[in-house]
Design a protein that fits this description.
about 400 residues, alpha/beta, Aspartate Aminotransferase, domain 2, 5-stranded mixed sheet
Length: about 400
């Protein structure tokens, strides 16, 4: 294979990871098998002991999954990637592989609701404590670090207010205190943002979102170095088994091929929609890093190649008004998923962040009037007209 280090990310998204079989197929095959046959008892023993590389059992070695892992690692600029059954499984495997009893985690408040539940309800049972800080407040991050802190965790842009974390500054802070910086890159993907190049240690993904791009399959991934990810996180996958299926890995491989094209178009549509929403009299505020009114617009220009496809906006009238706008749509899909070619719309306070307490939602800035839009690839005029149906009634 050619030297992939010289390839553009769009080329890596199409070419990395595929090793043609004796059938000389052009498209990546799906290896739908649970196990693999060894040439001899000695070869089986060598594979299981780790003396010889190769396939053993599809829970942790499968050629289709491996192709996806190698391709995503090449796009993110990492040495190793571990594919998992979901985005939440990726976060769990990262914490289980890299933290232990007595460790402390500092997290942004602006993260997915299920991640908060994972940290507070489940990791705490095993003696891992979590403190939460405002994503954009670097001083708050530093003040929260303790001698036992081992990891800083954030999403950027964050769900659903598109707040940004300064990855480079947080990486410097983490490393000064001997901590790891873990970045959830779900909203941008490596097509728009590469946290490892900015100093992050680990990148996690929900492949279910933009990497798939068409809402077909569940999956996740962890990308980083050969030791932490390639050995420690991989060890959790091998033993505990939150594994990605070969069929889903094949879907994600196909998704990666068009990722750069799709992310540019998602960003273009979202930018036009955000500008229109900002002028609508029923809208109090629009949250989108591509708007100059966004408090971290300058950071977005430095850190991301484009603003992305996620925006949120607050309507006058609280939950009743927000639900009215959502229910009036005919084109937008009312679903909490995102990253689809189809535009989706949701009410974060009662869906993605509905499991949080009122206090937690208030601290995260998630109001009852907030609506999140994952802008799809339809004609932006049609998306705008669909939203106007409800907004114009307020």
């Amino acid at each position: 294979m050619a030297d992939t280090d010289d390839w553009d990310i769009a080329t890596r998204a199409i070419r990395v990871g595929h090793r043609r079989t004796s059938e000389n197929e052009h498209s990546e095959p799906i290896f739908a098998t649970s196990s693999f046959v060894f040439g001899s008892a000695a070869e089986a023993a060598a594979r299981f002991s780790g003396e010889q590389p190769g396939n053993i059992y599809a829970r942790f070695t499968n050629p289709t999954v491996r192709a996806f892992e190698e391709r995503l690692a090449a796009m993110e600029g990492g040495e190793a990637c571990v594919a998992t059954a979901s985005g939440m499984a990726a976060i769990l495997a990262t914490c289980m592989g890299l933290l232990q009893q007595g460790d402390h985690l500092v997290s942004s408040r602006s993260i997915f609701g299920s991640t908060v539940v994972l940290f507070d309800k489940y990791l705490s049972r095993f003696g891992i404590q979590t403190s939460y800080v405002d994503l954009a407040d670097l001083a708050a991050w530093e003040a929260a670090i303790r001698p036992e802190t081992r990891m800083l965790f954030l999403e950027t842009p964050a769900n659903p207010l598109t707040t940004l974390g300064d990855i480079r500054a947080l990486a410097e802070l983490a490393h000064a205190h001997d901590c790891l910086l873990v970045v959830d890159n779900c909203f941008c993907t490596p097509a728009l943002q590469r946290p490892l190049a900015l100093g992050a240690d680990i990148v996690v993904h929900s492949a279910t979102k933009y990497i798939d791009g068409q809402g077909r399959a569940l999956g996740g991934a962890v990308v980083g170095d050969a030791t932490r990810v390639g050995e420690e996180v991989y060890g959790v996958l091998r033993t505990a088994g939150p594994s990605m299926s070969p069929f889903n890995a094949w879907i994600f491989l196909k998704g990666l091929e068009t990722l750069a094209l799709r992310m540019r178009e998602h960003s273009r549509n979202a930018g036009q929609l955000a500008e229109w929403l900002a002028t609508h009299p029923a809208v109090e505020r629009v949250h989108y890093p591509g708007l100059e009114s966004h408090p971290q617009y300058a950071l977005a220009q430095r850190q991301q190649d484009a603003p992305g496809g996620i925006l949120s906006f607050e309507v006058k009238g609280g939950r009743e008004a927000a639900w009215s706008v959502i229910d009036a749509t005919r084109l937008c899909s009312i679903t909490a998923n995102l990253g689809d070619t189809k535009t989706t719309i949701t009410h974060p306070a009662t869906t993605t962040h509905g499991r949080l307490s009122d206090e937690q939602r208030e601290q995260a800035g998630i109001t009852q009037g907030l609506i999140r839009i994952a802008v799809g690839l339809e004609a932006v005029e049609d998306i705008r007209n669909d939203l106007a149906r409800g907004l114009d009634r307020l």
